[in-house]
Amino acid sequence: xxxxxxxxxxxxxxxxxxxxxxxxxxxxxxxxxxxxxxxxxxxxxxxxxxxxxxxxxxxxxxxxxxxxxxxxxxxxxxxxxxxxxxxxxxxxxxxxxxxxxxxxxxxxxxxxxxxxxxxxxxxxxxxxxxxxxxxxxxxxxxxxxxxxxxxxxxxxxxxxxxxxxxxxxxxxxxxxxxxxxxxxxxxxxxxxxxxxxxxxxxxxxxxxxxxxxxxxxxxxxxxxxxxxxxxxxxxxxxxxxxxxxxxxxxxxxxxxxxxxxxxxxxxxxxxxxxxxxxxxxxxxxxxxxxxxxxxxxxxxxxxxxxxxxxxxxxxxxxxxxxxxxxxxxxxxxxxxxxxxxxxxxxxxxxxxxxxxxxxxxxxxxxxxxxxxxxxxxxxxxxxxxxxxxxxxxxxxxxxxxxxxxxxxxxxxxxxxxxxxxxxxxxxxxxxxxxxxxxxxxxxxxxxxxxxxxxxxxxxxxxxxxxxxxxxxxxxx
Amino acid sequence: xxxxxxxxxxxxxxxxxxxxxxxxxxxxxxxxxxxxxxxxxxxxxxxxxxxxxxxxxxxxxxxxxxxxxxxxxxxxxxxxxxxxxxxxxxxxxxxxxxxxxxxxxxxxxxxxxxxxxxxxxxxxxxxxxxxxxxxxxxxxxxxxxxxxxxxxxxxxxxxxxxxxxxxxxxxxxxxxxxxxxxxxxxxxxxxxxxxxxxxxxxxxxxxxxxxxxxxxxxxxxxxxxxxxxxxxxxxxxxxxxxxxxxxxxxxxxxxxxxxxxxxxxxxxxxxxxxxxxxxxxxxxxxxxxxxxxxxxxxxxxxxxxxxxxxxxxxxxxxxxxxxxxxxxxxxxxxxxxxxxxxxxxxxxxxxxxxxxxxxxxxxxxxxxxxxxxxxxxxxxxxxxxxxxxxxxxxxxxxxxxxxxxxxxxxxxxxxxxxxxxxxxxxxxxxxxxxxxxxxxxxxxxxxxxxxxxxxxxxxxxxxxxxxxxxxxxxxxxxxxxxxxxxxxxxxxxxxxxxxxxxxxxxxxxxxxxxxxxxxxxxxxxxxxxxxxxxxxxxxxxxxxxxxxxxxxxxxxxxxxxxxxxxxxxxxxxxxxxxxxxxxxxxxxxxxxxxxxxxxxxxxxxxxxxxxxxxxxxxxxxxxxxxxxxxxxxxxxxxxxxxxxx
Amino acid sequence: xxxxxxxxxxxxxxxxxxxxxxxxxxxxxxxxxxxxxxxxxxxxxxxxxxxxxxxxxxxxxxxxxxxxxxxxxxxxxxxxxxxxxxxxxxxxxxxxxxxxxxxxxxxxxxxxxxxxxxxxxx
Lengths: 476, 645, 122
Prior knowledge:
The complex is a heterotrimer of chains A (about 475), B (about 650) and C (about 120). By secondary structure, chain B is mainly α. Chain B is about 75% helix and about 5% strand. Chain B is globular and about 100 Å long. With about 120 residues, chain C is mainly α. Chain C has one domain (about 1-115): NADH:ubiquinone/plastoquinone oxidoreductase, chain 3 (Methane Monooxygenase Hydroxylase, Chain G, domain 1, Up-down Bundle), CATH 1.20.58.1610. Chain C is about 70% helix and about 0% strand. The mean pLDDT of chain C is about 85.
């Protein structure tokens, strides 16, 4: 019984969110004022789960007949997901009001998607990963098209669903091939037999298909095509979640499944694949972002290019690289949520202020927003002392340690290109006169969410050593 | 209390955030002032607590490292944000928070009614935050962070009245000058830190100093490290040739001059050299260099102070001169004497500046001492406290300045080099002269101001800090009474710091043996000279102003040379500033920048924009096409990886 | 290795043969008396002219979806019920509890659909 109790104690974050979304259903059904209660209830659930994950970060165990892992990097992922989702929920309170009708499903789907991510990060079995993936993806598809009166939202939802299902198909196909060669879906089993099977073409094809499926989710070239359209069509807050939580969850699935590749015990046979799509994503993302006029599309391409930087850490194939990737994900989550948060605040009721023009001269009218956005842009561009710099720094260092100096150099080059479009916004805000007559009423909760993200970006930038130490301690 | 030391940086930071974010919204000066001062006050109490706790520990356990969090960890470089609480940092912490608190309180009165009241307290709190990081940091990187932080605050506060004129230009020019000159020093400092990391493989004080004492490292490496670090100190502590920013820094509000440009920040260089005493002890040639620079700065600045007419300018050059004393002490290996002077100087110079602020306040922003006179009957409290500070800086026993100055003079004599001692004594005479010229012209004699001015005593919130500082300036020297007077207890101050400097002292050749009679004779000689100097100043500037005018006419050349500060600013302008400005305009800007760099960058940028414009067309918006691209990607990846197995 | 796939191949072969045979045999043996109605696209009489994207009421999909969801749950419950005795001996009451939790979650979803008017036809 004690053993059972410990098991349940360790997965309190998952239980909390599982119970949370069921209770949310009840709130949505029986409370007239659910539009006031539900957002705060959702935030409370996320924070409770997040803080428990933080508190129990040391209780490393494998539970439920070798199905779920807890503690360690799993909990670090939980923290990223839940805190990120809490910020999304805080941003959404005023944002989704502009759709006129109230959607209680929004918060429920937010919770189920986070539950899915958490199952992926904690999975010890390919079935668990698939279950989590589907839970997350189906929630995402619905969230993308939630504003069903808007044609673009419908388009986004449908495209995301079609292409997502297509990619999921490959993941299942990959899992089938892996099961066919390993005769097990247990991740530990796969890891222990990885070396002997690493010349088995079917096995490697399975692994590769699995990886390709997740390359879609992390928005890596050439599986990125859905990204700009979906980000543009979805609610801005949800696009923020796609680009952060979705990406982090996919990386968590790759890391937990193929962790054995990245600990340096066996050669990283997938390095060529990872390195090539990393380079392509970085450059494609940063180059095409330059010619974007819509801020959400620009952020979409920036998301593609960040997927490339993250893949450098995996291509490096050592524990520094993985620790760097997790660190990068944490910092990227908060800075990108901040970026989408500000776009959500500025875009206006009819979403007419999405062009870059709307940002010109922002500093004179909304100095706080401009300052916050500048910090985020500096961080995304990877300029010290903000969190984004250290994320890039750690993955580049990891690449150099694995003798992939050329990859690190290409990464730096791509960063230089990306500085152009990030800082162009800062220039527009501070050095140009206003071109449009921008009038927005800044929502208090939304602003609070953005300020929290920026503070986190700064804090991570001040004390990166502590965080990377913590991650590296658990991933050896 | 020692474990709570992080609060001494956290509280000022919170104060900065509060006043910085809400200062302009809160119209109530009381709230801003109380929050701004109380954060420093509490920090001071914590440092006092830590001091007594450390005092109760055995001597060999008086160093505590308070580790907060890992800052940067890359390869071998492992830097924590951690504070080192020991005798030296506690001493500096007491000065910074103690004097800082008094000046914060004083500022409530001085800045009353200023439109930037909240901003002022925000900057002041930020300064204390940076300064405490500087003195408490347990590694060079944290020291450097604080070092840059105080530089930034100094820049912000010098240009605080950005809309006011200052001399021929604006306050922001003065701020820029301070910043740029400091950057030159910081460059050297940074090189020194790099070299330390290269040599010792660590940036932690404990590791570096232990390795410096034990490892066998070539002499020239020590010389370079010590030299680079000293270049940093030259900038921050206003030594020749980088002292030129400090007189201009008087453009800032007077409390700033008192806190930053007299009591604390400018002594950071002294602190840093003292902290690295073991490195300097291993580089005797650089020690000699430090002593020479210190001695030259001391006498050079004192001579300029003789003829200045702006009350704050006199004090500014006096500060430069006193800092020279401190470096002279460091250079001759009397580290604790230097720190003793840092402390006493913090008391009396802060007092002098605050007194000057009180005078300026009472005289409605008039700063020219030729337009004062006879103020003692209008502002008696200011007069008495100012007089005490002047006697202290002149070195009249038993005021604090006597003991610290005497220890420095004795050390330089005992070091065996009579020239240092001579320069020190001459500087002391000059100091006494210009201080009493200042006192006489300001408080005594006839009233030389117009009838439109109505001098008045400052409010209690300003005079009480003056009185507290006056008490400190008067009795502060007793903790460092030299051995010949205090007998078996020895010099308490030296005893306290002894464990810090013990390794360095062991490395420097011991002082030659001198009799205590010698010490007393020298003391008396100096004292007689100083008293004579004071009398001369009072005689000339109160009773008989004619000889002074005659003298200045007769030595018109010398007088003008001094009045114009040896034309150093002009020389710098002609030899350094103008060539750089012109050169950068013609060669770097018009040719290299516009033609080559801009051309190249714009070319590349244009190219990338063109590429970008053409690639974006891939994004057609047709879902089937997207799926096709994905499929192609999958096929390519599969073929490539599988075939390469 | 391929031996074990022989039955699969056999099924595929039979399927192909069967399909081809039926199509062609009707072509060969069947009588052909074409009329106007028979030659039209849909012999049911539906006119093949107009928009191809005929709109259907979303309620059809809803009902179909609900059916599939609740139908699928039966697949979970059925093997559990069959094996219940054995599982109960091995694992005790938790076997029962876990199914109750599953059903509660399921019923909550049902309730939600009901409350939101998912079963209202008009």
